[in-house]
Amino acid sequence: MAEAHQAVGFQFTVRPDGVDLRLSQEVIKNIYLSGVTAWKKRAIQFKNGVLAGVYPASPSSWLIVVIAMMSSLYIRIDPSLGMIDAIKDNLPRRSEIPCGPCKPATRAVLSAILFATGLWLFLIYLLRYTLKALLSYHGWIFESHGKMSTSTKVWLMFSGRRPLLYSFQASLPRLPVPSLDDTIQRYLDSVRPLLDSDQYDQMEILANDFKDSKAAQLQRYLMLKSWWATNYVSDWWEEYIYLRGRSPIMVNSNFYIMDLLYVTPTHRQAARAGNVVHAMLKYRRKLERGEHAPVMALGTVPMCSSQMERMFNTTRIPGIETDIVQHLTDRKHLVVYHKGRFFQVWLYTGGRHLLPSELETQFQRILNDTSEPQPGELKLAALTAGNRVPWARARIKYFGQGVNRVSLDAIESAAFFLTLDDEPQGYDPAKTDSLDSYAKSLLHGNCYDRWFDKSFTLISYPNGKMGINAEHSWADAPIVGHMWEYVLATDCFQLGYTEEGHCKGDVNKGLPHPTRLQWQIQKECQGVIETSYRSAKQIADDVDFHAYLFSDFGKGLIKKCRTSPDAFIQLALQLAQFRDQGVFCLTYESSMTRMFRDGRTETVRSCTSEAVAFVRAMEDTSATNKATLKRLGLFRKAADTHQNMYRLAMTGSGIDRHLFCLYIVSKYLGVDSPFLKKVLSEPWKLSTSQTPQQQLNLVDITKFPKYVGAGGGFGPVADDGYGVSYIIVGENLITFHISCKFSSADTDSCRFSQNIQKAMLDIQGLFKAENDKKMVELGTHVQLENGKKHI
């Protein structure tokens, strides 16, 4: 036991002549080192806080301004226009304060320093608001590829100094509230291809009635919130979309991220977990100090980093009506689940992180432990997989005191949660369903072997593969993806393994063993756990999942066609959806709004009138060969429309978050709006998302082509619809993660993947036909020219 190990360091004996106190030198050394580490951490955080606080200036610039002002005293030039003299006149004299400044020269120097400091602070705020004005301009995103606006060039002049993670936070603009007319018109345009004439006319009447009656009042309140809060959407989005949901978060909300696709650095489970956990601790340390570089759009424009703050030490706490997100600081342990047992593992020793080899030792001890689970312990985590209200009530009733409270606190206060699984997973080219099994394992597992409330659960498999299941309320997938990219690169290219597959470094067998968490779970509580498990298992068993590697072509060929890879894939999904279902449907594509402070996501409605026209042209069996150019023209028009919609969403002019917030205001005011009710009740039968690659500098995939990730995915949003996540990997690979439900007779994940493949190839065929035609025309022209020369 860890407590017993620490207790032997401090002993005392009572004697007749007093108390004989004996202290262990090892313990005193550890206490000293821990204190030194803590003060170093505070000093670094303070330094980085100052650097971020004065950005885009630097502390050294204060000295430059002071020296300049001091120099003016000697050359008798007053750049302050008399302000230094005014400050000097108001400084106390010796006659007023006995120990105050007396010499005129001393008072002049002090007044110059005070003026220089004020001028320096003024310049900082001037530069910061200049940056905010520049960053509020988003015209650059609508420009043609390769062009750069004057504002962007000016912005580049201000971003020369290497920024820290939070350097730009104070300079990021607020998310603007779009105009009502624009939002309503864009909404009507988005549903036009999905409704017949009568349905559209009815929707238009509802929209116009809303605009003419209640919309202006709701908009005024929304404008007021946008002026007062840093972001008018994000807090309501977190609360009402995530935390107030009472249905299970497993599958319905949580998402997953896979390991490297082709490479497994070691097949030793404990060693891989040791390296990955150590890499995560390194990432957390840089995160706490703000030392990560901020994520930049197009490598130039900064994006908000506020979501990263809650990546570690964070848990979603269940409530009867609403959950809360609990974020703690400086947690020094993690909790490990293995074969029904929970273990607490300390991550520090002697004021430093455990080394990879030390973590491997700890995890191997857990793997070697043959003890049995305590009554009710095996499926305890199923409480986090089931409905939220039973979990909230059970938490209050059965986990509010005693050993249960202590053990639950250990889980909820842990840096993160680690599961050591006992069934191998990963991509196997010889098995067609290997990625499907891997995806389902990460998404829901056995429904009781992941703590779905933790910010993320790290999952380790016995063949060395890893993966993550992440809770969604605290952040979006790119945030977790950013950490995972860093961890995989650090694991493979910095930490490495020995020839035998172990972590590098000496083995420290003197570490205290991991501690078993203790539980006293009553029979009644075990019944609640079993009920949650059955509910979760029913959801998990209904998930039809298929992950598919599309390697016929990738981003390289698509860019040669002078079109956006994302628009290409989205139009292929529209074509696949129509071929699969025979109808068009409301389509959700996630876009980010992190160019604004505290921004999260916005919806791109991908099923546009232009996309529908293109799909109908592709499916027109009566068309002749001459229709190819027409189809290609319709494709380009649809792709341009999609790109414009995406850019509008990124720059704060989306549709759905504005309408969502108007609806929330209407509920607060007790205003009934049939239009908003109709909008918010529409089902998204096709929900899509692209997994971005954010840190391409970490791994050179041209040099290491096998070190590519497989992306991640999520469960189906609608009972009779599809969820599609995709990642564009390098130049020649696109990975699709497709989910739906077995209970729906209309959907089939494998069938949909085949439709996606055929749609991608059919669209590529349009460009191939165009290219072939150009080559024929060029050949004919050359023959004519050669004939003329011969004559």
In short:
The chain has 24 helices and 22 strands. A hairpin with a 5-residue loop joins strand 13 and strand 14.
Report the mean per-residue pLDDT as an integer: 85
**β-strand amount:** 5-15%
Radius of gyration over alpha carbons?
31 Å
**Helix content range:** 40-55%
- Mind describing the biggest β-sheet? 8 strands, mixed
Shape: globular
Cα distance spanning the termini: 99 Å
Largest sheet: spatial strand order: 15-9-8-12-13-14-3-20
Number of helices: 24
Structural notes for this entry:
The protein is α+β, with helices and mostly antiparallel strands and 791 residues long. The strands form six sheets. It has an eight-stranded mixed beta sheet, sandwiched between helices. A hairpin with a 3-residue loop joins strand 21 (722-729) and strand 22 (733-741). Residues 1-23 have low confidence and may be disordered.
Write the layout of secondary structure elements.
Blueprint: H1 2-7, E1 10-15, E2 18-23, H2 25-53, H3 59-75, H4 83-90, H5 104-135, H6 150-158, H7 180-191, H8 197-213, H9 215-228, H10 234-243, E3 255-258, H11 269-289, E4 296-297, E5 301-302, E6 314-317, E7 324-327, E8 333-338, E9 341-346, E10 348-349, E11 352-353, H12 356-368, H13 388-398, H14 402-412, E12 417-420, H15 434-443, E13 456-460, E14 466-470, H16 477-495, E15 515-516, H17 523-541, E16 543-550, H18 555-560, H19 565-581, E17 587-592, E18 601-605, H20 609-618, H21 627-650, H22 656-669, H23 674-680, E19 686-690, E20 712-714, E21 722-729, E22 733-741, H24 749-790
Parallel strand pairs: 8-12, 12-13, 17-19, 19-21
Antiparallel strand pairs: 1-2, 3-14, 3-20, 4-5, 6-7, 8-9, 9-15, 10-11, 13-14, 16-22, 17-18, 21-22
EC number: 2.3.1.21
Membrane topology: Multi-pass membrane protein
Family: Belongs to the carnitine/choline acetyltransferase family.
